[in-house]
Amino acid sequence: MAQEHDPSAEETGEETLSAADSPQLSEVDALREELGESKQRLLRTHADLENFRKRASRELENERRYAAIPLLRDLLPVADDIQRAIAAAEESEGESGLLEGFRLVAQQLDSVLKKHHCTEIPAAGEAFDPNLHEAISYLPSPDHEPNTVMQVTSKGYRLHDRVVRPSQVVVAAAMPQVDS
Q1: Distance (Å, rounded) from C-alpha 28 to C-alpha 98?
Q2: For residues 141 and 5, what is the distance between their CA atoms, to the nearest angstrom?
Q3: Based on the domain organization, do 96 and 129 belong to the same domain?
Q4: CA 170 remoteness from chain centre
Q5: Which residue has the higher pLDDT, 112 or 53?
Q6: Which residues in 103-128 are b (16+ Cβ under 10 Å) and which e?
Q7: Measured between alpha carbons, how far is 47 from 45 in angstroms, rounded to an integer?
Q8: Residue 135 domain flag
Q9: For the segment 131-171, what is each residue's pLDDT rounded down to a tens digit?
């Protein structure tokens, strides 16, 4: 089949297309569209992979950062017992060498906890915070503002920013109103 010759097309640089060239062009357009879609899928897949890598890295870092929590939960009652032994020895005035030994052990344990980013949660005199404190009792007190920690019965600890064990506390309640 012969192509039609258009002299005006030569001047503009355009060629006249015959009906036979039309299917080839539509096939080329379809391939271009498919290539564009494939490029978009590739970009999305690459972005998804990068997001996965970042998320996995964050999760691994958190896992490493907080891996010691079970050990700390088991170790903190031992620290409590050491403090109780020190308090009992101070009251009995018996073996001052034993008392001094327990104090040294307590200091060493505190320094090990701090070295591993396990710190005591401040509680005495602080405003009660249910995220950090566990109220075991509410007592009316004329000396403390309501909702203030009056007494700490068991120290709380956190690892980095995560609570390992909340402080067990006695919280001041508002004084009851006395009717005259």
Answers
A1: 91
A2: 106
A3: yes
A4: 28
A5: 53
A6: eeeeeebeeebeeeebeebebeeeeb
A7: 5
A8: yes
A9: 999 999 888 888 888 889 998 998 899 988 889 889 999 99
Domain boundary among 65, 88, 117: 65
Query: How far is it, in rounded angstroms, from Cα 3 to Cα 21?
Result: 10
Q: Using CA atoms, how far apart are residues 108 and 79, in angstroms rounded to an integer? A: 10
Judge whether 14 lies within some domain: no
What is the Cα–Cα distance from 122 to 36, expressed in whole angstroms? 60
**Sheet of strand 133-140: strand arrangement:** 133-140, 167-173, 149-154
SS3 169: strand
Mean pLDDT of the chain: 82
Look up tokens 């379809």; give the residue.
Answer: 30
CB neighbourhood size of 142 (10 A):
6
What is the pTM assigned to this prediction? 0.60
Answer yes or no: is 180 within a domain.
no
Residue in the block written with tokens 């920690």: 149
Tell whether 158 and 89 lie within a shared domain. Answer: yes
Domain encompassing residue 109 = 69-173
Residue 54 within any structural domain of the chain: yes
- Name the nearest CA neighbour of 176 among 141, 127, 148: 141
Q: What is the pLDDT of residue 140?
A: 87
Domain count within the chain: 2
